[in-house]
Specification:
By secondary structure, the protein is an alpha/beta fold. It has a domain at 16-148. The protein is 18% helix and 10% strand. It has an 11-stranded parallel β-sheet, with no helix packed on it. It is elongated, with a radius of gyration of 37 Å. It binds zinc ion. Zinc ion binds at residues 1-2, 4-5, 24, 26-27.
């Protein structure tokens, strides 16, 4: 039990400007402390509500799994409410907030209006379907948000991580972006013009066909981009003169291995009991063939010395077969 639980009505609390009360399982609610500017109640799993704190600028309430909503906090600039799985409601207007972390809030369906926000991490929020307009945002992490089908136009964005968002088919205009991580965005078909991009990780984007002109790119990871065609750019200079020939040879090799694999499959099938049972069953090639061979082995062409005379019977030739032929 922490000091706060033991002295909920203590007068000294009213002069507090900063409070850290992490990991207290007994804390269910906080008293109204009007002078508080910084509060860290990380991991208080039974905390169900917070009071409206008029001058609070910094709040860390992450891993407070019983919190369902946050009150209006008009001076807030920093908010970390990550891993609050029952949080469904945020204040509609967080006009002073500049840094906001709400990763892994699995029941959050929408974000408030955030006109001053500079940095946002809303990764791992499966029910988030759209993001608000954030004109001042420069850093955005929205990894593993399967509900997101599009991103708003964020003109100031310099760093974007939208990896593993299968709902995204395209990205908005990103005129000053320098770093983009969109790996495993399986349905992303194209990228917009991003003239200032220096780092791009688009590994595993299987539907990405072409990259735009990226004149100052210094890092590129496009592993597993099966259909990506890279036009020779500065990062590939000098172009490999054997490229086309190598691709043709690889395709031949691929065809050869596919045929070889099919042949191996066929061999296994031919050796199987199932195949044998079918092949030698009545009316199937195996039986017909063995009959034919039997006949062929029985009927020999007469030798020259026999042509005029009586044909000698072979030692191995069964009697009475000629009549059947
Ligand atoms: Zn306590």
């Amino acid at each position: 039990m922490c000091f706060l639980c033991q002295n909920p009505e203590a007068k000294t609390l009213q002069t507090l400007t900063s409070l850290i009360c992490c990991y207290c399982p007994n804390l269910t609610r906080l008293p109204l402390i009007s002078a508080l500017t910084s509060l860290n109640c990380y991991g208080c799993r039974n905390l169900t509500q917070l009071p409206s704190l008029p001058v609070l600028t910094s709040l860390n309430c992450s891993r407070c799994s019983s919190l369902t909503q946050l009150p209006l906090m008009p001076a807030l600039t920093y908010l970390d409410c990550a891993q609050c799985p029952n949080l469904t409601h945020l204040p509609k207007w967080l006009s002073t907030l500049t840094r906001f972390y709400c990763a892994e809030c699995s029941n959050l369906t929408q974000l408030p209006s955030l006109p001053a926000l500079i940095e946002l991490n809303c990764s791992g929020c499966p029910n988030l379907t759209q993001l608000p307009s954030m004109p001042a945002l420069t850093v955005l992490y929205c990894r593993q948000c399967p509900g997101l089908t599009q991103l708003p136009e964020i003109l100031a964005l310099t760093s974007l991580n939208c990896s593993r968002c299968p709902g995204l088919t395209q990205l908005p205009s990103l005129p000053v972006l320098t770093c983009l991580d969109c790996n495993q965005c399986l349905n992303l078909k194209q990228l917009p013009d991003i003239p200032f991009l220096t780092e791009l990780n688009c590994a595993g984007c299987r539907n990405l066909i072409q990259l735009p002109e990226l004149p100052i790119l210094t890092f590129l990871n496009c592993a597993g981009c099966t259909w990506l065609y890279c036009s020779p750019g500065p990062w590939l200079f000098p172009p490999n003169p054997d490229y086309e020939q190598n691709v043709r040879q690889l395709l031949y090799l691929q065809t050869w291995f596919r045929r070889w694999a099919r042949l191996k499959q066929m061999q296994r099938w031919v050796r199987s009991e199932e195949f044998n049972a079918w092949y030698y069953s009545p009316g199937q090639p195996g039986q017909l063939r063995s009959e034919k061979r039997w006949r062929i082995s029985c009927v020999k062409r007469p030798r020259e010395d026999e042509e005029s005379g009586v044909r000698k019977r072979s030692r191995y030739e069964p009697e009475g077969l000629e009549a059947d032929l």
